[in-house]
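Structure tokens please, single chain.
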Amino acid sequence: MDTELVTEEEFRIIREVRKDKSLTQRKISQKTGISLGMVNLILKRLTEKGSIKVRRLNRRNLQYLLTPKGFTETTKRSYHYLLRTIDSVKKIKAEVQELVLQEYHKGKTEFIIFGDGELADIIELSLKNLDKSNLKYRRASRVQEISSNNAVILLAQTEPKLTTLEPELRTPKYIDVLATISHEL
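Here you go.
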């Protein structure tokens, strides 16, 4: 039995066939961004693997059906993708915690998470999980909400950069989290 996961292109084609079994190769090509010739080759390969079944509707039209093996492959791929994502979030959390602990050991106990979105959420979760009773943090989405000169600002957005917003805010300690952890991962 073939335990190899489907390729990215195969997965994109399988996903489209799963959504709509009446798609032509041309429509699959348009929806996936894969060339028509490559779609043809991949569909043949998926048919040989037993992931897709082809049914002839008439002389000109074919219907592509996802087989149980095809469903299993998409499920496996989704499962492995989820595991990789969870692992990535764990690594990011650990890196953020290490950054915060470096400042904490220097005596910093107040942190401001500057920004909105997923990175800010992960940073907040990282701080929450540190379990340091005297560590305080809050979120700010606008420069005007940053009032403490003692807080370490954890920049959780890529644009606009904090350093370009307000020159007077360069004096407090701030960490561009994305830039810092991308060097570490």
